[in-house]
Design goal:
Largest sheet: 6 strands, antiparallel
Radius of gyration: 19 Å
Number of helices: 7
Shape: globular
Strand order of the largest sheet: 8-9-11-10-12-13
Order of helices and strands: HEEEHHEHEEEHHEEEEHEE
Strand content: 25-35%
Number of strands: 13
């Protein structure tokens, strides 16, 4: 197993091979700072990448290559956004804080909106090779309203995923493709016909690829859900939230159980 420093050094060397003219001027834990063609610095955060490696070390080459392709997009000339590829992703306050640490002016650079007291909706363009966050510059070129962007992104999500429901006895999990499970909270699927649970619908979304469902009166499965949420937040990657949410009046709100 590679240590953090060994892993980030390996990634840095592969990054230099991948991008001609790139300079690395600092490495700090799992953060790489680079300069390209005299431009402002870029930062590569490898926390999720290293977490994925720790969970599946035999797949190190596939994991690194996938993150390298994302990193390469930082330095390429941006192409026109295809609105049909825009999808919503769900993040929490921790992600907001990471953005602040990276860029104090991120609110003027990245397109996002508040969903509830805990969660935020960001927008990405999902291409064959990368998932790129929508910038304000990208959004302005689309020449649409923010509300229209949200509706289009949700419709794109609905059209692009096939939802599988697993589980029984009032405890369920939704599966799509490993990237947009948490985004399913935005779809119009949350009703008694789809989820036979005891009481109001309660969900947990500890990571982007895990959406758990049970009922508000089902104390055994609520306890099971809380355990899984804590476990994923301690050991997982691409984290979303530590909280439980209750479906009320057409959306999910924080639930204190």
């Amino acid at each position: 197993m590679l240590t953090e420093s060994e892993f980030v050094e390996k990634f840095a060397q592969r990054l230099l091979q991948k991008i001609d003219g790139l300079k690395i001027y600092s490495i700090n834990h799992l953060e790489i700072r680079t300069e390209f063609q005299g431009s402002n610095e870029n930062k590569h955060f490898l926390d999720n990448c290293y977490s994925e490696y720790l969970r599946d070390p035999n797949e190190i080459e596939e994991i690194i290559e996938r993150y390298l392709n994302v990193g390469k997009s930082f330095y390429e000339t941006k192409k026109e956004i295809n609105i049909n590829n825009v999808l919503p992703v769900i993040k929490d306050g921790r992600f907001i804080q990471n953005l602040i640490d990276f860029d104090n002016n991120f609110e003027n650079n990245i397109v996002f909106e508040k969903y509830n007291d805990e969660l935020y909706i960001f927008y990405v363009e999902d291409t064959e090779t990368n998932i790129n966050y929508l910038t304000q510059e990208d959004f302005e070129k689309l020449n649409i309203e923010k509300s229209e962007l949200k509706n289009i992104a949700i419709e794109n999500l609905s059209n692009s995923v096939e939802i599988e429901k697993h589980g029984e006895d009032g405890y369920y999990m939704l599966v799509v493709d490993g990237n947009y499970e948490s985004s399913l909270i935005l779809l119009d699927i949350w009703n008694e016909e789809n989820f036979d649970v005891d009481g109001e619908i309660i969900i947990g979304i500890p990571a982007r690829d895990l959406l758990l469902i049970t009922g508000k009166n089902d104390f055994e499965n609520l306890s099971r859900m809380k355990f899984t949420i804590n476990e994923i937040n301690n050991e997982g990657d691409h984290l979303v939230s530590t909280q439980l949410f209750e479906y009320k009046n057409g959306k999910f709100e924080l639930c204190d159980i």
